Each structure stands twice: as structure tokens, then as C-alpha cells.
């Protein structure tokens, strides 16, 4: 089965913000991605707005209804933005000040769990699908199901940073077991973080996995090969 591909275009906006120009435009990038193999476009609206801006989310949701997957924290401000622009789906991710990128799955503290429950309920009322970015552990998968998520995105950071073959196989087994449990609980399973053209195949081969969300490796590949080629090559692997 061909897996779906979500292409994260945050770093198109990173390049734009470096000069505060109007280009390259994430809307143009989204059009290219969707026409050359991507099933949908992923954008992360961070609190610090260091790449994707709220105006980008507005324009993307308007131009590509049903094809925008918004990543954001569970803050009330981000919930308000998601409800305003109504992307097809929202992935709630952890976010720490000063981090270079997301460092792991959500931490389900009592306070966070309460906030997630409220946000998921509000998003569902607007017919927005909800994904939770989680570590591939049984406890976190079960919590996501109890909270009413539609999707879990398994964090593949540890897998992508594995130091040797033994560690890689152990982490792949963790991802496979988490996928099996998630499927049994009625959750759709995505994977993302650190996946590239060399390590994605083993994750894509896990039974029950439905989508890979990939950004940095595709955008960096596009510098040398062009965005259409970079997207179509990744889609071809899946």
C-alpha cells in the first residue's frame, strides 16, 4: 500500500523570514508539493512565529481546503487560530522556548491532559481532525485514545538518531508495537521527525502505518534538485 506523504514547508518560510521578503511564498511551495506527489501540506505555527506566520495559515487554508495539516501547541491562542482558519487537521505538539526543533512527544501531565481534552473537543466541534504527537510508548498511545484523538503521530527522532544497527532495530520494534496498539484502539498512525531518503523505508514498511510527515530533508534536497523532484522522489519511496 502506498503511504500518504505530508510535506512540511516550514523552511520555505524560514528562508523568506531571513530577509523579511515576500518570497519564497509558502503558498507557491504548497502548490508545487501538492502537484508533484504530496497528499497534504504540513505547517507548524510556533509561538515565536520564526517561520510560518498566521497570515500563511490563513492563505494556505483558503487556497487548499482539505489539504492543510497544522501543527501547533495546545495554548489557547493556537487553539483560537486553528478554529478560525479550520485546517483539515491539527497536530498538537509540545513546544519549548528556544528549542531548535520539537524534541519529543507530548508530556501528559494532569494540567496538559486537561487542556488537551478541552482543545480536542473544540476542534472536533468544527469538524477538524486531531492528531497528537507522541512518543511510541503504550502509555502515551492509550492516553491519546482516551483523550479522543483521531490520529497519533509517532515521534521518530530517537530512531533517526540511532547510533548503531542494534539500537535502530530496537527503536523500529518500538514503533511497530506502538502502531499495532494504536490501530487496535482505532487510531490512525502517522510518523515524523528526522525522517529522510535513507531511513524512511524501514518505518514506511511497518504494517498499519498510513502517513509520513517529512519536511527538512525534502526542503534541503530541493536546494540541489528542485522542489518537484525532491517531493516526487520521496513519494516514490513510499
3D architecture notes:
This protein is an alpha/beta fold. The chain has a single domain (about 5-235), classed as Aldolase class I (TIM Barrel, Alpha-Beta Barrel), CATH 3.20.20. Helix content is about 50%, strand content about 15%. It has 11 helices and 8 strands. Strands 1-2-3-4-5-6-7-8 form an 8-stranded parallel β-barrel, surrounded by 8 helices. Helix 6 (about 140-145) links the parallel strand 5 and strand 6. Helix 2 crosses helix 11 and helix 10 packs across helix 11. The longest helix is centred in the last third of the chain and has 20 residues, at about 165-185. The mean pLDDT is about 95.
* Shape verdict: globular
Neighbour order of strands in the largest sheet: 1-2-3-4-5-6-7-8
- N- to C-terminal separation? 8 Å
Round the Cα radius of gyration to an integer and report it: 17 Å
Helix content, binned percent: 40-55%
Please provide a brief summary of the model:
The protein has helices at 10-19, 26-35, 54-63, 76-85, 110-125, 138-147, 157-160, 165-184, 200-204, 216-225, 227-237, and strands spanning 4-8, 40-44, 68-72, 89-92, 129-134, 151-155, 188-192, 211-214. By secondary structure, the protein is of the alpha/beta class.
Q: Any chance you could write out the topology, listing elements then pairs?
A:
Elements: E1 4-8, H1 10-19, H2 26-35, E2 40-44, H3 54-63, E3 68-72, H4 76-85, E4 89-92, H5 110-125, E5 129-134, H6 138-147, E6 151-155, H7 157-160, H8 165-184, E7 188-192, H9 200-204, E8 211-214, H10 216-225, H11 227-237
Parallel strand pairs: 1-2, 1-8, 2-3, 3-4, 4-5, 5-6, 6-7, 7-8
Helix pairs in contact: 2-11, 6-8, 10-11
Amino acid at each position: 500500500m502506498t503511504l500518504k506523504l505530508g510535506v512540511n514547508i516550514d523552511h520555505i518560510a524560514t528562508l523568506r523570514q531571513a530577509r523579511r521578503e515576500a518570497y519564497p511564498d509558502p503558498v507557491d511551495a504548497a502548490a508545487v508539493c501538492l502537484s508533484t506527489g504530496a497528499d497534504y501540506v504540513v505547517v507548524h505555527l510556533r509561538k515565536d512565529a520564526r517561520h510560518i506566520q498566521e497570515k500563511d495559515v490563513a492563505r494556505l487554508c483558503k487556497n487548499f481546503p482539505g489539504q492543510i495539516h497544522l501543527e501547533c501547541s495546545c495554548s489557547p491562542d493556537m487553539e483560537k487560530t486553528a478554529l478560525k482558519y479550520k485546517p483539515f487537521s491539527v497536530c498538537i505538539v509540545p513546544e519549548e522556548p528556544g528549542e531548535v526543533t520539537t524534541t519529543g512527544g507530548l508530556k501528559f501531565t494532569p494540567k496538559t491532559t486537561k487542556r488537551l481534552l478541552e482543545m480536542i473537543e473544540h476542534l472536533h466541534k468544527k469538524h477538524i481532525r486531531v492528531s497528537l504527537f507522541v512518543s511510541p510508548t503504550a502509555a502515551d498511545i492509550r492516553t491519546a485514545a482516551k483523550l479522543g484523538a483521531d490520529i497519533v503521530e509517532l515521534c521518530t527522532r530517537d530512531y533517526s538518531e540511532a547510533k548503531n544497527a542494534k539500537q535502530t532495530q530496537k527503536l523500529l520494534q518500538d514503533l511497530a508495537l506502538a502502531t499495532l496498539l494504536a490501530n487496535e484502539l482505532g487510531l490512525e498512525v502517522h510518523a515524523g521527525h528526522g525522517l529522510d531518503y535513507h531511513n524512511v523505508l524501514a518505518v514506511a514498511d511497518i504494517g498499519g502505518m498510513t502517513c509520513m510527515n517529512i519536511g527538512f530533508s525534502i526542503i534541503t534536497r530541493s536546494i540541489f534538485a528542485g522542489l518537484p523532484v525532491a517531493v516526487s522522489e520521496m513519494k516514490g519511496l513510499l
